[in-house]
């Protein structure tokens, strides 16, 4: 757990526990000894600006008189330990008065717009597709310890983006960034949830700042599932197509459930990612009519895939429904509508392999076989993030590589290790280039510029930056006679090397988001009551692998996560949130292609790839038995 990483804390810390709303929408009054919003009345900054067309909605640390969703923090207590904090919560009473009507006057429509065009075809069909809320549910939830050391507020936090946390906290407290220090342990899973910093974490930081107390908060699993949620989209679709299988146009009326308020970084960005990916790999004209609504749900945050699974679920279900109506093969219908997209890998090979596996499964199982074909774009660029979204978060990552006098190559990056093994990948890149294995990687560092781990960007940015930096370092070392000679100089004749610093810093971001063409074929069995995923075949053109075994692990993990999302996971029951175990894992075959991307290392982003396509292939397989129009699967 998180507290294993806090041996360096100076002094004792106390424990925070939150009083949470038990009502979805109500006025409330707290009686008893508790901290409320008035004690920590700070403005929470927003990273995004392009969403300025949204209603101007405040991001609360604690609810202000009105609770907006079940689980919203409305008060805080401080205890000597977890048990003392719970006892103090028992002494606090909350009175509620239920409310009705919109959260924000005059209605809950926060933003609406339309874009795109379409063409009418010879035939049409209509679909209502819904992707309900789900929780990232990492192995370890959120955790934060705040201390006061040497005139600084020191934040030990389980986060995917330490530099972003530092900026938001400094802006919130109205202090200079050099007064804020963020330290990140080895993060116990993120899945997007720890990309943003949420009200609870900011409230603990603010309360520590106000009281001067060293404070700790460890999120419980039920708290996480109740309040950390992603997805939440409805698509009312009209599809036009010709009898030859060509889809001429789509009208998609999208309702995006923002929740009670936007998060500082996420905002409504998953919606924009859905819109970018809705066309997927196809040449199809799409008209989208978008409505963003506020609701009495938790604020929608990032979840692995970040809008892509929703897009692929919609377009791939459309493909299968059109194929079924025209009696086309699911592979043929996709080939008929392919766009000519460059630099995403070997499209022809992926389709060939998917067709072969589909036919093999069809012969073996007859029914319950689903397909998805997709391109996973990773690592958004500064052109999009800063230029279009007006965010201070850029698409680049800087990495420093240094040879110290002990003979250790030190690598520093702001990206964090949250289970994807980025530290091992960077170490491997350096060791391979130098043919030297004494390498230490410091993740979550604030000694270099960058923005952490999200959007499948870690290897694309930090990996390429590391490669560029170590190549330059290698040139410096070779010009001085090799590593052994440099170490001799550093230790015995340091004056001879004083002006020849043995390090390199390089920054990198791709010119455009990097695509990886991918396909999945899933087999599902049905006994008349329950569905079971039996087999999954996934092929991904990963380019050059930073670490092939870790890539395979990422792909398999995403498939299993999507399996749970389709069949088991229900945020309406946070105390019994079912996550797949080894018992539910099907036979999975992963095939990798290696067409280098147009980046220095030839890498492609992988972290969100398989989960984004697996929801669709599983849903299409189940639709051989019962049409799937909603995730998780409903059979009312």
TrEMBL record:
MF terms (GO), sorted A to Z: iron ion binding; oxidoreductase activity
Keyword Oxidoreductase: yes
Classification via SMART domains: Ald_Xan_dh_C
UniProt xrefs under Pfam families: Ald_Xan_dh_C, MoCoBD_1, MoCoBD_2
Domain Aldehyde oxidase/xanthine dehydrogenase a/b hammerhead, first and last residues per copy: 3-100
The entry's keywords: Molybdenum, Oxidoreductase
Protein's UniProt keywords contain Nucleotide-binding: no
Annotated protein name in UniProt: Molybdopterin-dependent oxidoreductase
């Amino acid at each position: 757990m998180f507290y294993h990483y806090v041996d360096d804390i100076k002094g004792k810390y106390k424990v925070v526990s939150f009083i949470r709303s038990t009502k979805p929408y109500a006025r409330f009054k707290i009686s008893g000894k508790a901290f409320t919003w008035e004690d920590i009345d700070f403005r929470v900054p927003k990273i995004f600006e392009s969403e300025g067309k949204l209603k101007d909605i405040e991001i609360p640390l604690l609810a202000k008189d009105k609770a907006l969703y079940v689980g919203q923090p409305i008060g805080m207590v401080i205890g000597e330990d977890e048990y003392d904090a719970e006892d103090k919560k028992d002494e606090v009473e909350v009175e509620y008065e239920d409310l009705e009507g919109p959260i924000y006057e005059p209605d809950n429509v926060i933003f609406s717009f339309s874009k795109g065009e379409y063409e009418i075809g010879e035939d049409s069909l209509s679909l209502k597709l819904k992707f309900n809320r789900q929780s990232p549910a990492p192995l370890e939830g959120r955790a934060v310890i705040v201390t006061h050391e040497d005139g600084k507020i020191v934040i030990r936090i389980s986060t995917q983006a330490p530099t972003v946390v530092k900026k938001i906290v400094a802006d919130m407290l109205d202090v200079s960034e050099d007064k804020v220090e963020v330290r990140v342990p080895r993060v116990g899973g993120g899945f997007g949830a720890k990309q943003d910093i949420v009200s609870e974490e900011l409230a603990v930081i603010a309360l520590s700042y106000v009281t001067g107390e060293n404070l700790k908060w460890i999120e419980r699993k039920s708290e996480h599932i109740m309040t950390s949620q992603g997805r939440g989209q409805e698509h009312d679709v009209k599809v036009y197509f010709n009898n030859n299988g060509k889809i001429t146009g789509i009208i998609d009326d999208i309702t995006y459930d923002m929740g009670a308020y936007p998060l500082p970084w996420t905002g409504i960005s998953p919606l924009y990612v859905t819109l970018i990916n809705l066309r997927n790999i196809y040449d199809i004209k799409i008209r989208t009519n978008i409505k963003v609504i506020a609701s009495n749900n938790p604020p929608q945050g990032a979840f692995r895939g970040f809008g892509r699974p929703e897009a692929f679920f919609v377009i791939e279900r459309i493909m299968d429904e059109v194929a079924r109506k025209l009696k086309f093969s699911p592979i043929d219908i996709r080939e008929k509508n392919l766009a000519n997209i460059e630099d995403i890998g070997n499209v022809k090979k992926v389709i060939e392999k998917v067709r072969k596996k589909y036919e093999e499964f069809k012969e073996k199982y007859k029914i319950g076989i689903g397909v998805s074909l997709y391109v996973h774009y990773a690592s958004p660029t500064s052109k999009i993030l800063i230029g279009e979204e007006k965010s201070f978060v850029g698409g680049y990552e800087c990495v420093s590589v240094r040879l110290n006098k002990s003979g250790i190559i030190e690598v520093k990056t702001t990206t964090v290790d949250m289970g994807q093994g980025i530290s091992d990948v960077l170490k491997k890149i350096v060791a391979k280039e130098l043919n030297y294995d004494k390498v230490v990687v410091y993740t979550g560092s604030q000694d270099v510029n960058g923005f952490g781990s999200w959007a499948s960007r870690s290897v694309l940015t930090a990996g390429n930056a590391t490669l560029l930096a170590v190549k330059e370092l290698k040139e410096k070392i070779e010009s001085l006679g090799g590593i052994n000679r440099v170490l001799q100089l550093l230790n015995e004749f340091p004056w001879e090397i004083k002006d020849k610093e043995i390090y390199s810093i390089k920054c990198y971001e791709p010119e455009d988001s990097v695509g990886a063409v991918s396909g999945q074929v899933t087999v599902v069995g049905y006994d008349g009551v329950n569905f079971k995923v039996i087999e999954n075949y996934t092929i991904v053109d990963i380019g050059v692998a930073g670490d092939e075994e870790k890539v395979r692990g990422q792909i398999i993990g995403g498939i299993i996560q999507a399996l749970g999302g389709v069949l088991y996971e229900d945020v309406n029951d946070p105390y019994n949130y079912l996550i797949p175990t080894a018992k539910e894992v099907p036979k999975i075959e992963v095939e990798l292609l290696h067409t280098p991307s147009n980046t220095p290392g030839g890498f492609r982003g992988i972290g969100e790839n398989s989960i984004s396509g697996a929801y669709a292939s599983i849903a299409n397989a189940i639709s051989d038995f019962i049409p799937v129009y909603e995730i998780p699967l409903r059979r009312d």
